[in-house]
Design brief:
Two copies of one chain form a homodimer. Chain A has a seven-stranded mixed beta sheet with strand order 4-10-9-8-7-5-6, sandwiched between helices. In chain A, strands 11-12-15-14 form a four-stranded antiparallel beta sheet, with helices on one face. Helices cover about 35% and strands about 15% of the residues of chain A. By secondary structure, chain A is α/β, with parallel strands linked by helices. In chain A, helix 8 links the parallel strand 7 and strand 8. Chain A is globular and about 70 Å long. The first copy, chain A, folds into two domains: about 150 residues, Aspartate Aminotransferase, domain 1 (Alpha-Beta Complex); about 230 residues, Aspartate Aminotransferase, domain 2. The two termini of chain A are about 35 Å apart. Chain A contains 13 helices and 15 strands. At the A-B interface, helix 2, helix 3, helix 5, helix 6 and helix 10 of A face helix 2, helix 3, helix 5, helix 6 and helix 10 of B.
Chain lengths: ~425, ~425
Amino acid sequence: MSVELLQSKAADFDAVDPLSSFRSRFQLPEGVIYFDGNSLGPMLKSMPERISKTLHDEWATGLIRSWNDADWINLPETVAAKIAPLIGAKPECVTVTDSTSVNIFKVLCAALVLNKGRKRIVSEKNNFPTDLYLVEGVRDFLQRGHEVCLVEDDLELFDSITHETAVVLLTHVDFRTGRMLDMEALTKHAHGHGALVIWDLAHSAGALPVHLDEVGADFAVGCGYKYLNGGPGAPSFVYVNEEHLGSAWQPLTGWFSHKTPFAFDHSYEPNQSIKQFLCGTPPVLSMVALDESLKLWRDVRIEDVRNKSLKLAEFFLECVSASGLDDEFSIATPLEHKDRGSQISLRFQGDGYAVMQALIARGVIGDFRDPDILRFGFAPLYNTFGEIFRAVQHLKEIIEIGEWQQARFMERKAVT
Amino acid sequence: MSVELLQSKAADFDAVDPLSSFRSRFQLPEGVIYFDGNSLGPMLKSMPERISKTLHDEWATGLIRSWNDADWINLPETVAAKIAPLIGAKPECVTVTDSTSVNIFKVLCAALVLNKGRKRIVSEKNNFPTDLYLVEGVRDFLQRGHEVCLVEDDLELFDSITHETAVVLLTHVDFRTGRMLDMEALTKHAHGHGALVIWDLAHSAGALPVHLDEVGADFAVGCGYKYLNGGPGAPSFVYVNEEHLGSAWQPLTGWFSHKTPFAFDHSYEPNQSIKQFLCGTPPVLSMVALDESLKLWRDVRIEDVRNKSLKLAEFFLECVSASGLDDEFSIATPLEHKDRGSQISLRFQGDGYAVMQALIARGVIGDFRDPDILRFGFAPLYNTFGEIFRAVQHLKEIIEIGEWQQARFMERKAVT
């Protein structure tokens, strides 16, 4: 297909895009095509006013009274109620607190306590590193003979879950490749073997429909700063299945997890609700930013997001192929829709880091993951088909004229 | 002393106050006398511009690039370097991350791992509840026979620390009464018995000089949102003695605690620096707010803050006494300077909650702690002697005309 035809196809897709109106609600920089919303979502235009209100009216003027008067005390619930429908959960099963890493620790501990007769923890070798590090942390702290089984290949996952498995910790959509696991089948299989399942939804929440209650997931955690656009380091969410509320217990028993935090009792009484998964005082500014970003979802159906995401990705693949880049790049992301999230990852045989730096220099922002992966995350609320067309044109030019060679010897940045 | 004389004394003190210029750097609401900076410090006037820059230039425009270009990645160190001199610590022994509660958990675990041959944890029954709850949390999670010894009276503290004590967890300045412990003597005593010491500096940092390195404290944690004015739920700091860096290990082993987080290694390698006490991605907006608030301290000597704090408190006590309130209120705070922090707590036999509500209705904001304590925190960077005079006049009137009786039957607020 000719360049002109691809370009006009992009224009046609954009013209009939039912989500096209949402892009104008984001503050996107001029001259940038942003495919890194799976790492840090952009800012909503409404954000500065909301934060300014929190600073001036709530903090500066209300001072300590704002815990009541501005309802800061209920921010974990207020924010959670906006996330719950996106992950198929009852609001009372979700709260928002701490970082994803801290929350992984909590649910992992809770699962091991619930299933304390068993010693095996199953995860994937390619899981996001923080998940694996926390498994090691809990195991090494407890020193109770837990064994960590890291599966090298998705296909081995089912077989690795046995009647000895205490807990399975899986990331729904792989951060490198965008591969999506079958949440329903794996949860069912694990339950059939008496194992509990924790789902890390970092690359799922806000990108595609998730049905935690329906599949019977035991625990889940997720990220506020990727597809939920909550701002850098936005707080994370935790899900606990209704069935475990009141019986599940996590050891970060800070005062916000107490039955009556402001009674200042000497001894600990766990809150019987999802609040037992809170810990200390929440970072209000960051919580408010996440709350503001989530307002967008009142007007969006997650199914529409998923449909456009798949279409964007298909068009990206079509552009790559039509641009003759098939020889240079291989596709790391599964082709079947049911097997992938909202990104396309390309493997490059040469210096992939340099190629991504060359793209970024041209204003096309994705990111690079060792050893050879260029990631392009698609966020249907602001990405367009026209952007995809232009991004792949840039990529083609960079390869054709060897522009990436210039970036080969640059120092790697701290965060890649 | 007559009311007129007290008033003129206040004016005289304010006229010669070497810290008087700092008040104008805070955005304080009209008609409010704020003695609750020990619960939530007020906002600096420079804050909105700094946050606006972070929102517009760093998040919205820089997007993911700001982790490098705006140096978000180094915020824990940047902020810690500003806190270190206030607590008598080398910058490389301090980091800023998570909430105080989460950090208490970390240092408690680290101390128990370091001193693993011993089973006793010593603290005070009147310690801030979150500290006690976390001791229970760690003990119940480990199930390794740890025994918690909660001392009822400060005087018993020394005797309770024995050769069986693994760790002593103490809050330097008591949140209810403002009583300050002898950090040096207790640390020395504990070390003499082979115990490790954790100091909770929630009511010390920014209020008075602390000398962690000098006294040889093992660990410390503290709060960013009280006397450091970092904003509601600001991140907390952690101190680890140089001697333990590299050997101390905490189990919340999220990716930011890894030796090379962005190498995305499969297995955990602890960072050998203070960074091992980080966990997940930091909440950037809240970190930036704390960073901004700490800039003030470039121009302030903590010794001057302490001097004024004691003088404010003395004048408060003088006003209470001169106003004939001695019969109504007793002083819960130790009178000796070396034994108290930066607050005065009054006990009231009647409905203390109602008295505080009546004060707040008149614009004098302190807070109430069950069962009978009215807390007045003094922050020398913005509080004046004139405010103290006026606040006590209000208190006198409220008692004289029984104004507090009106507030007796009101519903207690969620946060008190």
